[in-house]
Amino acid sequence: MKEVLIAIGIGLTGGLLSGLFGIGGGVIMIPLMIFALGYTQLQAQGTSLGVLLLPVGILGVWKYWESKNIEMITALWIAGGFVGGALLGANISLTIDPNLVRKGFAILLVGVAFTLWFKK
After folding, report:
1. Range of the domain at 44
2. How far apart are CA 78 and CA 70, in angstroms?
3. What tens digit of pLDDT does each residue of 55-112 get?
4. Is the C or the N end of the chain the one with fewer CB within 10 Å?
5. Is 48 in contact with 117 (CB distance < 8 Å)?
6. DSSP characters over 54-118
7. Using an 8 Å Cβ cutoff, are 9 and 33 in contact?
8. Number of domains the chain is built from
9. pLDDT of residue 52
């Protein structure tokens, strides 16, 4: 049961950040859509989520399944949490000032970069 709760927590966290900031590959795609395509922050986030839906993930899952490198039960629990977190994050994101969302996204990017830079 502990693993299930951890898996759901991981999914909720990933989903929340995905719904709130559009991450999940979006760390690269969102800034490019903003700067190269002139999208707003929210347009870039929504588009990123659309890109990452079924067409991208299914091929990666298939390859990992073939090589027996996927824990499907855990993945399903995380996915359940991710769905709930993404819905919550999207609802929050769409009810607050888009400038605040953009600034929150920037803080997240700086935090990730800082952590990766100093990781041993």
Report:
1. 2-118
2. 13
3. 556 777 788 788 887 777 887 887 888 889 989 999 999 999 999 999 998 998 899 8
4. C
5. no
6. HHHHHHHHHHHHHTT---HHHHHHHHHHHHHHHHHHHHHHTTS-HHHHHHHHHHHHHHHHHHHHH
7. no
8. 1
9. 65
Take residue 16 and report the two structure tokens written for it.
Answer: 């929340």
Polymer length of the chain: 120
Q: What angle do CA 99, 82, 62 make, to 5 degrees?
A: 120
Give the tokens for residue 90. Answer: 């999207």
DSSP at 71: -
Written as six digits, the tokens of 75 are: 């993945």
Q: How confident is the model at residue 4 (pLDDT cuts 50, 70, 90)?
A: confident
| Closest to 114 (Cα-Cα) out of 20, 13, 106, 45 | 106
- pLDDT tens column, 10-42: 778 777 877 777 675 566 777 777 888 888 888
Helix (H, G, I), strand (E, B) or coil at 12: helix
Tokens of 70: 């996927």
Q: Alpha-carbon distance 40 to 78, whole Å?
A: 29
